[in-house]
Design goal:
It contains 11 helices and 7 strands. It has helices at residues 2-15, 19-27, 38-47, 65-72, 86-98, 123-126, 129-140, 154-157, 164-167, 191-197, 229-243; strands at residues 52-56, 78-83, 103-105, 118-122, 144-149, 178-183, 206-209.
């Protein structure tokens, strides 16, 4: 009964978050507006409480806001953010600090960060027994708001021989908690394979997608003779220095 009451209070707390107010307070600017599909994604996560949400957004369009904003609005709750590399852990922790969000990088050799609003963990650590105990404790207390899998397309890139633990992130879908998947690299043709890889039926997944085409990004091919690679690179660098003199 106590656990049921804690769960009810948990969802009441989440549903009570005003995403527009949190946005203005997060950036300390009353004119700040959501970009792209940020509002649609946050409505699905916060207001509608969808259990499985896949968000595909362009690089640089603010994917981290999707979990930082609701975490900021839920001081008593905890959001787990699974990232693919340790370098992303420190970068995300710095961004949380700038937004006055209590965060912690998971370290199994230290005491569990029970007071953190966002706990950042790499995929290999997210499937360990010690982290599972931490998740279960937070869930039992009604304090586990959601699990976020950042750069979730890496699940499709992993194999039984290369980063096999990433494939075990599928186990997180078995938790009776909201799971949010974020990426900029998942074409529509791969969505079915992705859903299968993370153990979610298509009917259970709320998919929110924006175009990931970047009109300001292009590539070209340079031809060069054998033995002229150094000169070709040097010429390219000089051309770019003239093209972007202020960088």
């Amino acid at each position: 009964m106590e656990r049921k009451d804690a769960e009810i209070q948990h969802w009441q707390r989440i549903r009570g978050i005003d995403i527009d107010t949190q946005l203005r307070e997060l950036f300390n600017n009353v004119t700040t507006q959501f970009r792209g599909v940020q509002r649609e994604a946050l409505r699905a996560i916060v207001e509608e409480g969808k259990r499985r949400v896949l968000v595909i957004m362009r690089t640089g369009d603010g994917k981290s806001l999707i979990f930082m904003l609701p975490a900021r609005g839920s001081p008593q709750g905890t959001t787990i953010v699974v990232v693919p590399t340790t370098s992303l852990q420190q970068d995300l922790k710095k961004r949380c600090s700038k937004c006055f969000i209590k965060s912690a990088v998971w370290d199994s050799t230290r005491a569990p960060p029970f007071g953190a609003q966002i706990v950042i963990v790499i995929a290999e650590s997210a499937v360990t027994k010690s982290f599972a105990r931490f998740i279960n404790i937070k869930h039992t207390r009604g304090q586990l708001d959601r699990i976020v899998i950042d750069e979730c397309h890496t699940v499709l890139e992993s194999t039984p021989k290369w980063r096999p633990d990433v494939l075990r992130l599928k186990e997180l879908s078995d938790k009776s908690v909201q799971v949010v998947y974020l990426t900029a690299t998942l074409p529509p043709s791969d969505e079915e394979e992705f859903n299968e890889a993370v153990g979610v039926l298509p009917s259970e997944m709320t998919s929110i997608r924006e175009s990931t085409c970047r009109s300001n990004v292009a590539y070209s091919v340079m031809d060069y003779e054998k033995g002229e690679l150094y000169d070709a690179i040097k010429q390219l660098v000089e051309e770019k220095k003239m093209q972007y003199p202020y960088l």
